[in-house]
Amino acid sequence: ALNSDGPIETTEEVTFTDGKKHILQIFKQKLTSTTGETIGVLGIANDISERTQYEKALVEALEKAEESDRLKTAFLANMSHEIRTPLNGVIGFAKFLRNFPDTTLQEREKFLGIISTSADHLLTLINDIIDISKIDVGQLTINPEAVNINELLNEIYTFFYNANPDLPKREIAFNYTTSLPDSKAMVNADRMRLRQVLTNLINNALKFTDKGKVEFGYNINSETNEFEFFVSDTGIGIAKDKQEIIFQRFRQAYTDITKQYGGTGLGLAICKSLVELMGGRIWVESETGKGSTFRFTLPINAPTTQNRGKVYGYELQELKNLLKGKSILIAEDDPNCMYYLKTVLKDFDINILEADNGLLATEIQYQHPEIAAILMDIKMPVMNGYDAIKRIRSTNAQVPIIVQTAHTFSNERAISIALGCNQFITKPIDSNSLYQSLYSVLKESRR
Ligand code: ADP
User: Fold this and answer.
1) Is 417 near ligand 1, meaning CB less than 6 Å away?
2) CB neighbour class for 291 (10 Å; exposed up to 12, middle 13-18, buried from 19)
3) Ligand 1 and 263: CB distance under 6 A
4) How far is residue 218's CA from residue 209's CA, in Å, rounded to a whole number?
5) What's the pLDDT tens digit per position in 125-142?
6) Which of 26, 66, 344, 415 has the lowest tally of Cβ within 10 angstroms?
């Protein structure tokens, strides 16, 4: 019923004969005879389906951009907080130690504990930021090797068990299960990255659980031919509508609640990228207030050859015996790092030779064929570690070389192994990994 005299405009959805829906902008005009009677309607239709779609897409893009802006701002504020808190711990308590020399031994122990955990926090944070940046520029590479999962799970369990002595007091039962015999529990994966994903999920589980149970393990899904790993907890849980977005970077389920737990919202985004790079998927099953189970898969495929030197469990005393009277060459340009390495090795009856650049290292090595192992930094002046390894390997295929380096953006580990290094450890170097590597290369070179 066209009541008005002027033209009217409507937008209508019309199904065409081919079954497709189109959006039409229609102008209608009543036609009247000279005597004023209505004799018909004149209509012009304009197909605006495409234009409407563009408009919708534009609005969505704008909303997304605004959302991303909001997230980045929240992230920066959060990050600033996350960085300053541990820095405060390190700087504040280090100053205390210097300025108040008459603090009690007990207090000093406490201060040192805070400095150490704060530094660990900072390190995790920095590693996360580096990982996210690597993912962004497509430089995060996976180095697959044969990994014994039972062994890895045990290692992770032991780590968390020792790092959280308060679990019994918190009434949290912490456990892991394996579902294959050791000899069969092999997966072709990046050991360090697999460990990182599990560690991240277990950290979250312990963080968001007040009491109850935290369990992890794996099962075989014979239908999809995949390993299915799980980390389950009886913690605060995650609402249905948050279960997907938490895997996006910077996203946290409850900003206010999570504040109390700390964190930057990067962990799960990194886990997702890592799992996908290794050919798997990750998801969560959860109910608010009851708990969460994070699951991820890895394809079961024949383990490839090991691409790093074998790692042996070591005994400190045995290592000392093995090293007794031997010479070790340390190539390192940073005086603090050099001092640190020498301190870590100070209780060993060894002769330490020092080089502050790669070229000098090759010369010392050449003059001292008795050297039992070389610790090689990569980024050094005059000649870098890669070139030094190449040069040493051109005349000496035997001498064990342990690369010790600050993880940077290039694929240092793969390059070093390709050039012929035997072990690879990353800075900050923990004394255990150094002992472990030394022990492994010495064992291996005696075979
Ligand atoms: P972060 O823990 O640094 O905030 P993550 O990416 O690891 O970042 O986690 C994102 C969010 O997912 C967390 O802030 C939390 O809201 C939620 N979450 C992760 N794991 C759990 C869990 N086990 N139980 C409850 N909530 C979790």
Assistant:
1) no
2) buried
3) yes
4) 21
5) 888 888 888 888 777 888
6) 66
